[in-house]
Amino acid sequence: MKSRQAISIGGVTLALTFALPSYARTDDAEINTIVYFGDPVTLTGPGNQVVVPDEVSIEKGQTVTFVVYGPNHGIALYPVSSTTTRDDITAQLCPHDPATNACTDPVFANGDHTTRDGKDNVVIVTGTNPPFQRVDDPTDRLLATSAQIDGVAGVFLTGATDTSPGTHVQFRFAKSGRYLVVCMNRNHYLANWMFGFINVQ
Ligand SMILES: [Cu+2]
Distance, CA 31 to ligand 1 centroid (Å)? Predict the structure, then answer.
């Protein structure tokens, strides 16, 4: 959108053109926070399987855009208690070798695992794989990008590479609270701890 304003200076009329931001509606002061879903620098392997930053705070009504980097990610979002810590979650995921930071149990991601929040409320029950190919518990979930329908698992998102853009998933947080965002790829979440938090105040 452009607005034109005519100004007369010394008998000479200048037509000035002002370029405005390219949003569809410029009267809304939209505040958006970007969270990288997959490390934007390390594009493959376990090093990619992180949420950056892994904790953000926004105001109620604002949006987060998850900018996907790297392959085979799916996004799921769950409310959790305000007291839930990162350690609360990782204690329920595959133990990591302190030296290599790698999951110590190669079949962990296919097992049935429950994630509870800081108040001990059940947030996610994964079931086993097979048949459940994703981290895909719909209970109280706000968003899922790669859900399984009957036996068919939804595809993962297209992640950006060095030369091509990826998926941008934008979500508006209408209610205050603390939210857990996890990767729906069982190996990414359960073995490699791909999750983060969004605080909405
Ligand atoms: Cu992932």
Answer: 26
CA 182 to ligand 1 center in whole angstroms? 8
CA of 94 to the centre of ligand 1 (A): 15
In this structure, of 18-32, 74-88, 141-155, 161-175, the range with the lowest mean pLDDT score is 18-32
| CA 82 to centroid of ligand 1, rounded, Å | 24
Alpha-carbon torsion angle 197, 63, 125, 70, nearest 10: -80
Q: How far is the CA of 103 from the centre of ligand 1 (A)?
A: 15
Q: Is the pLDDT of residue 48 over 80?
A: yes
The SS3 assignment for 108 reads helix
Architecture of the structural domain at 30-200:
Sandwich (2.60)
Task: For residue 50, give Cα distances in angstroms to 2, 69, 147, 150.
Answer: 41, 10, 20, 29
This prediction has a pTM of 0.87
